[in-house]
Design brief:
CATH superfamily: Hypothetical protein af1432
Oligomer: single chain
Number of domains: 1
Distance between the termini: 50 Å
CATH architecture: Orthogonal Bundle
Order of helices and strands: HHHHHHHHHH
CATH class: Mainly Alpha
Structural class: mainly alpha
Strand content: under 5%
Largest sheet: none
């Protein structure tokens, strides 16, 4: 019997949950996105916390798949489920209200959720094209602004700003 870490189990869970979904380009399997988000958390932001890495893999499963909080909690525990829930928009709300509620939710979120949000926006920006680039850049800047309030994320914010500069973007 092999022992998989929570993040390894989450990688498999995410791949199964997102099976058949594609990124906006219509070619790339959607599961590549959460895998890249987890990879950014682990490598670029040097996160080693298994709950955070597991949640990075799972960050879109409640919002985009037939999964709910209870299923995530049963499989990965309340901490991981809480982080995933913190990354999940309430799709029952109108879009304008949804975005405002989501921003307020992120303002109250723990450090791990804000770190995942940085990685999520960076990955989304890296494959944005055309008019979607400005929207993705705005979301990345908002994630940076939010993360700047958290001293524990100072290194991640500096790395994120440097990465945006590499893309030729101002982080402000």
């Amino acid at each position: 019997m092999t022992h998989e870490s929570p993040s390894q189990r989450a990688a498999g869970f995410s791949a199964r949950a997102h099976r058949g979904q594609l990124r906006r380009d219509g070619i790339t399997p959607y599961s590549a996105h959460p895998a890249r988000v987890a990879l950014l958390c682990a490598t670029l932001f040097r996160c080693t916390d298994e709950d955070t890495l597991a949640a990075a893999y799972l960050h879109d499963v409640i919002e985009d798949c037939a999964c709910d909080y209870d299923e995530i909690a049963a499989a990965f525990g309340a901490t991981v489920a809480g982080y995933v829930d913190g990354m999940t928009k309430d799709m029952r709300l109108r879009e304008d209200l949804r975005e405002r509620a989501y921003h307020e939710q992120l303002e109250q979120a723990p450090t791990a959720v804000r770190l995942i949000k940085l990685a999520d926006t960076l990955d989304n920006l890296s494959d944005a094209v055309g008019d979607r680039t400005e929207k993705a850049l705005g979301k990345a800047r908002a994630a940076i602004k939010l993360a700047r309030r958290d001293p524990a994320l100072a290194d991640a914010v500096a790395i994120m700003c440097d990465r945006l500069a590499t893309f030729g973007f101002d982080s402000n």
